[in-house]
């Protein structure tokens, strides 16, 4: 059974391992200072938020998200990072994390939750196609 809840100080090491796995998947190497800053922001739970998924009490998945205003609707919730430990994939962890973010956002009056993934992330896209609608938008980035 998958349970989802707030991260605790005791989760720090496993959270960092999972978040490092997420960043490695996308070809990024992050400094120790990056993880310290991110953990502090998630612990404050003010402008950016984190939840963890557990199976048999073991942290096996994480999700990071934030809200922002919209020009055309109520606030939106952006699900920025989602990662499940490889050994826990296929057990409903990702689905449970998305549902928990949706519940969190709904309780705060958000209009919707949205996220993006790389087009070749086929494993994740199977789940995303099952729980949400793809509206065909293309993402552009301008590095600053």
Automatic annotation (TrEMBL):
Keyword RNA-binding belongs to the record: no
InterPro entries, per database record: Acyl_CoA_acyltransferase, Bact_Acetyltransf, GNAT_dom
UniProtKB keywords: Acyltransferase, Transferase
SUPFAM superfamilies, per database record: Acyl-CoA N-acyltransferases (Nat) (SSF55729)
Residue ranges of every copy of the N-acetyltransferase domain listed in the record: 2-144
Domain of life of the native organism: Bacteria
Protein name in the entry: GNAT family N-acetyltransferase
Source organism per UniProt: Yinghuangia aomiensis
């Amino acid at each position: 059974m998958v349970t989802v809840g707030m991260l605790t100080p005791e989760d720090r090491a496993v959270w960092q391992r999972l978040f490092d796995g997420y960043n490695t998947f996308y070809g990024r190497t992050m400094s120790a200072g990056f993880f310290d800053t991110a953990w502090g922001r998630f612990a404050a739970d003010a402008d950016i938020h984190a939840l963890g998924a557990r199976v048999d009490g073991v942290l096996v998945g994480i999700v990071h998200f934030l809200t922002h205003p919209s020009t055309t609707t109520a606030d939106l919730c952006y699900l920025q990072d989602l990662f499940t430990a490889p050994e826990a994939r296929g057990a409903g962890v990702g689905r449970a994390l998305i549902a928990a973010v949706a519940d969190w956002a709904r309780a705060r009056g958000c209009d919707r939750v949205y996220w993006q993934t790389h087009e070749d992330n086929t494993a994740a896209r199977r789940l995303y196609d099952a729980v949400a609608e793809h509206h065909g938008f293309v993402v552009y980035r301008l590095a600053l």
